[in-house]
From TrEMBL:
Positions of the Ribosome maturation factor RimP C-terminal domain: 96-166
InterPro entries: Ribosome_maturation_RimP, RimP_C, RimP_C_sf, RimP_N, RimP_N_sf
Domain of life: Bacteria
Name assigned to this protein: Ribosome maturation factor RimP
Gene symbol of the encoding locus: rimP
Amino acid sequence: MTAAETRIVTEDGLEARIAAIVEPVIEEIGYRLVRVRVSGMNGKTVQIMAERPDGTMDVEGCEEVSRAISPVLETEDPVDGAYHLELSSPGIDRPLVRESDFETWAGFLMKVETSRLVAERKRFRGKVIKVENGAIRIERDQPAYGEPASVEIPLDAIADARLVLTDELISASLRADKARRKGRVADGTGDIEEPADGDESEPRSH
């Protein structure tokens, strides 16, 4: 199996422990971990966001990942008390966690937060125009007076990044989804009906 691309945006604390447990299992069955979040929703919710290597995800994929990671989470038991395990797709306004994500979504509006000051800021909004030499270059969206039109951000400085929901992004996502579904029909691996949004949730008790 080809080694999966390492995430550059990762978790801390409990979320990091959960990610370390589930990521190898998710990769073993041919998917990629996008993000782990633990929240106080419904008492306590552990959200695992995952996708196929081509960026797609559906209900069937969420169910497959859930079945694979549930026994491991039961054994390792990283979360105190009862919780809901929720599997979901990244969504259209997805987090960007790998270098290839910035390459794939170059030209689309995104928000980026850094762990250290870059060009005297930690928050940026704009479109990626270049990804090279361990950094991204963002063309800023409405830069303040006196600020440069673009800024280079080292990948190792990125703490959080996600796409901004725009009409352009929605249209591009719909076109890409339609093309992928037509491809699955052509090779006999699927039908052309609209897939449901990936989201699988189940309660866990410890």
